[in-house]
Every structure is written in C-alpha cells, then in structure tokens.
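subagent[fold] <- orchestrator: predict structure for attached chain, return tokens only, no commentary.
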Amino acid sequence: MLDGRAVRRHLLAAVVAVSGMGLAIEVWVARAPDDALADALLPKLSLSYEANLPTWFSSSLLLACAVAAAAIAHARPPRAGHWWFISGLAAYISLDEAAELHEHLGGHLDTSGLLYFDWVIPAAAIVTGLVLAFLPFVRALHPATRTRLVVAGAIYVGGALVMELPLGWWTEQYGSDSLGYALIDWVEETLEMIGAVLALSALIAHRQETAR
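subagent[fold] -> orchestrator:
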C-alpha cells in the first residue's frame, strides 16, 4: 500500500526539480536574451508556458488526486457522493490545466488593475459556493484529514486564483514579456503544484486510515 508521507516527500522533491528548472530558464533568458539554447528550452521548461513539462506534471498530479478521491468514494464511506464530486472536480481541473478551459470565463467584463484577468471574478464566486456547500462535509472529516485537505486547498487556491491578482496588475502595467511577469507566474504555478501534492498525500493517507 502507498505511504502518504513517502509520496509527499518524493513528489515535493519533484516539484522542487520542475519548479527550479523553470526558474533557472527564466533567469537565463533574462540575462542572455540572445542565447539560442535558452530560447529553445524556455517553452519546454518555463512555468509560464503551456503544453510542456510543468504542464504535464501539474495535470498528472491533479489526475492522481481524482483517482485517489475515486478510490475513497468506491469504498462507499459516509458522504460518498461528496468524494465522487471531489474526484470529478479534480479530473476537470486536470483537464483544464492541460487545455486551459477556464479561458472562456474571461474577456466578458471591462476590468483593470488587480482584476485585469476578469475570469477571477466568476472563479471566486464558484470557489466561494463550493466552500459553503462543502462546509458540513469538511467538518465531518477526521481532524487530521480535515487539516491536511484545508491546507492543501488553501495553497492551491492561493496560487491558482489569488496570485492572478498581482499577475493581472503587472500585465496591465508592464506586459507579459518580462522577468517580473515570469516570476509572479512562477510563484503561482509552484503553489498550485505544492497544493496538488499535499492534496494527493492527504487523500492517500485518508484512504489508508479508513481502510484499517
């Protein structure tokens, strides 16, 4: 059986590697903008690009979360429907990470500054609704599982949603073709990966603890 702590340790090491390579290539390109090798590696390793190594890693983490939640739901615990919903939500976010489905939420409002990326408004409403709807479910969880999942969720949402605010402001002021943009986006994507890793390890630990 999988060890949740070992999974967390190894995957966090992988996050350090993927995130570190992304940061290194951004700094390399900023300091040597005419380096052909750096330019070739940037779209493959940068956390600001899509359809590359970081995107595949993030999407895979979220898909693994979907599978772990489905395994919990399949055991028919109390509130199994909530676990199935979590599984489906994680699968959708995994798909969105790879295909950028959330982009259709933006471009409908005339916003600026921190809300330059207007998709954060409907996204925040959806997140708030989910939090309120799931409060009874979260309160009913074992304290250890509840703490792990709340921390993981807070880190993930902090990256995916909250960090879009300073990123939007920077984009409006200075554009997206700068090291500043890349660094803010790097923080955002790294937080998302960390949150996904913590969620996966929490789900694995919960499944083990409830199977005893």
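orchestrator: received. Logging for downstream: Helices lie at 4-31, 36-45, 53-74, 80-99, 120-140, 143-162, 164-174, 179-211. Residues 179-211 form the longest helix (33 residues).
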